[in-house]
Write a structure and sequence with these properties.
Layout: E1 2-8, H1 15-28, E2 33-39, H2 50-56, H3 65-82, E3 86-92, H4 100-109, E4 116-119, E5 122-125, E6 131-137, H5 150-161, E7 165-171, H6 178-197
Parallel strand pairs: 1-2, 1-3, 3-6, 6-7
Antiparallel strand pairs: 4-5
Length: 199
């Protein structure tokens, strides 16, 4: 059984959501594939604050009721991530960066001593045997340019946890005319079909 966690983060429910839906539909038709969906907009996480961050730094038995509730949020998301073999991120590009909803998820699963640790030679990921797929939808064309800070940001955060195998599907130029939109989405859907075949 291959377990796939699909995360979406579009506040508009737009193109990145459509790509994630397409992936989920194709993958759901395959034997031995189980899909879990998490909509980070519908199930929005608050921005990470000091009280929540501090709760992680206490031993479970030393936490008070509020600290246990705060720590449980991160613990549950990490457990969910660890329970899956593949994580799929449906990501629109907002102001050249990540949606805050997606960043809030990463802020909970990137935990020193849990999903990565610091060593004399730098950080080392503690998550093994998993891969990621990025479904990136953009109104303009940014891939491979200096303006695309999103792709390296995502791959570095995944890599920090030890997820180094990352495939990316770009759908770009989506706001540059109907023909360009349709061609880009069609090409992205074909690329997704190829990745689903590898599950």
């Amino acid at each position: 059984m291959t377990r796939v966690l699909v995360l979406t983060s579009s506040i508009l429910g737009g193109n990145s959501q459509a790509l994630a839906d397409h992936f989920s539909a194709l993958a759901g038709e395959r034997d031995g594939v189980e899909i879990t969906r998490r909509d980070l907009v519908a199930d929005e996480l608050p921005h990470l604050g000091l009280a929540e961050l501090s709760s992680w730094q206490l031993a479970p038995e030393a936490r008070d009721t509020e600290q246990r509730e705060l720590a449980a949020r991160s613990d549950a998301l990490i457990e969910e991530l660890l329970a899956h073999d593949v994580v799929v991120l449906g990501v629109p590009l907002y102001n050249l960066g990540l949606p805050t909803q997606m960043k809030a998820w990463f802020d909970r699963v990137l935990r020193a001593g849990v999903t990565f640790r610091y060593t004399e030679n730098g950080p080392v990921g503690l998550i093994e045997g998993k891969r990621a797929i990025l479904l990136a939808a953009r109104g303009g064309e940014y891939a491979g340019s200096e303006l695309d800070s999103q792709t390296p940001h995502l791959t570095h955060m995944l890599g920090l946890m030890g997820i180094g195998e990352v495939d990316t599907v770009f759908a770009e130029g989506l706001n540059m005319g109907e023909a360009k939109h349709d061609a880009a989405m069609s090409e992205a859907r074909q690329a997704i079909a190829g990745l689903v075949e590898r599950l």
